[in-house]
Amino acid sequence: MSHTAETLQLLAPDGRLVENESAERYKPIVDGLDESLLQSFHRTMSVIRAFDIEAGNLQRQGQLALWIPSLGQEAAQVGSGYAARPQDHIFPAYREHAVGHIRGLDVVQIIAMLRGLSHGGWVPEEVGNFHLYTLVIGSQTLHATGYAMGVQFDGLIGTGDADRDTAVMVYFGDGATSQGDVNEAFVFAQSYRTPQVFFLQNNHWAISVPVSVQSRTPLFHRPAGFGIPSVQIDGNDVLASYAVTLESLDAARSGEGPRFIEALTYRMGAHTTSDDPTKYRADDEVESWRRRDPIARFETYLRGLGASETFFADVAQEAADFAADARRRTLALEPPAAESMFAHVYSEQHPLMDAQREWLRSYEASFGGDA
């Protein structure tokens, strides 16, 4: 299910700004973007793509159990990620590497988690309120809705203080819309008018099931049925992703209730490295989306604004260095101490954990020597 007449696009695939009535509404936002932020869009998309490819290579070489590619979805993530304020809370699914990077997450922590070297991932408050990845499809929408209800109860919306008013944004995929959790989240979000944005990355494939089987109508029509204002955007257009998310988060923070964004994009790679998309996808479909590549599109736009060859060369080098550093640090990762499994099970020291820790020490000591 591709673009419809209602799909918002601000930057066409050929790198030109779109001029129509729908785009005109967001022109002030686009015009207000300074050169630094525009360059950050391109830099982040390029760096994360290089890292993503390198992580996939590391998995194929046996360095981690699984990798979840984000190739092709960079614009949807980068635009929306930069639209959030520092105090906002982000609930990802498991493919939002670019958003995590924007919020301050060391992406090697994702590799460590998928290598089985951490007990959960990271502490959200230490990485820009970027919460943990979840492989339980759609469950994060309920987590986000509950958190947004808490934000509301704490009075952190509608005060007019830009540094205090808080929104919650949750990412999920097209396949997750068939989960009961997601629909339950819609019910509670609208009933309590929570300060949150549902951000659907419709990459057209829920593993091997196409979105045309998931829904006979555009997915952004579903939350509208719950009373949640919704919009469908070109997810390979970083300007549209930024502008619409900025507007939606502002509305949520001001107390206007939840918003829903469907970003039409495409998963260029496999669902995960355990998947072979050639078994269920046609080559001509993949090629048609390759021609809509979000990074190439934005590069053309920046060149039209006068960006120099030096800038693009520097970004390419930065991306290569970032990927190489991720490889080096991945190969240097060490297994955690066995006793770490007893930490953070309870918020305070607990006698059951103490007993189990002592049992493990005694058991290992029973082998004698260095065994």
Automatic annotation (TrEMBL):
Its EC number is 1.2.4.4. It holds the Pfam family E1_dh. Its cofactor is thiamine diphosphate. Belongs to the BCKDHA family. The branched-chain alpha-keto dehydrogenase complex catalyzes the overall conversion of alpha-keto acids to acyl-CoA and CO(2). It contains multiple copies of three enzymatic components: branched-chain alpha-keto acid decarboxylase (E1), lipoamide acyltransferase (E2) and lipoamide dehydrogenase (E3). GO terms for biological process: branched-chain amino acid catabolic process. It is an enzyme of class 1 (oxidoreductase). Residues 43-306 form the Dehydrogenase E1 component domain. It comes from the Bacteria. It catalyses: N(6)-[(R)-lipoyl]-L-lysyl-[protein] + 3-methyl-2-oxobutanoate + H(+) = N(6)-[(R)-S(8)-2-methylpropanoyldihydrolipoyl]-L-lysyl-[protein] + CO2. This is 2-oxoisovalerate dehydrogenase subunit alpha. GO terms for molecular function: branched-chain 2-oxo acid dehydrogenase activity; magnesium ion binding. Keywords: Oxidoreductase, Pyruvate, Thiamine pyrophosphate. CDD domains: TPP_E1_PDC_ADC_BCADC. Gene3D superfamilies: 3.40.50.970.
